[in-house]
Amino acid sequence: MVVNVRLFGMLGILAKQRSVAFHMAEGATLGDVVAELGKRFGREFIDRILRVPGEMHSYCQVFVNDAPVDDLKRELEAKGSAAEVGMILLMASEGG
Q1: Mean pLDDT of the chain
Q2: Domains in the chain, ordered, with CATH?
Q3: Short-list 94, 11, 3, CA closest to 47
Q4: Cα separation of 21 and 30, whole Å?
Q5: Residue 13, Ramachandran bin (φ over 0: left; ψ between -120 and 50: alpha; else beta)
Q6: pLDDT at residue 89 above 90?
Q7: Secondary structure of the chain: what % helix, strand, coil (to 5)?
Q8: Where residue 80 falls among pLDDT bands split at 50, 70, 90?
């Protein structure tokens, strides 16, 4: 399945792009998406998302198909032709 990821705020700055699309196997989880983003954008990027492996920072907000999700084990479902994932860090400096 195609996964479209939108990166807001600091995540877009770290990645040097605001969106990325890639293919994932059916049954892929949000954790699989985060791992792929870490491979593409490096350690500093992934450290902003994960507090420890398998656990997101409380200020990292993720939306899958426009619904908030905080479980990295959540299986992605395509909405139409792709799964839509949005990520933002809600730091105090960003108005969170």
Answers
A1: 91
A2: 2-94 (3.10.20.30)
A3: 11
A4: 14
A5: alpha
A6: no
A7: 30, 35, 35
A8: confident
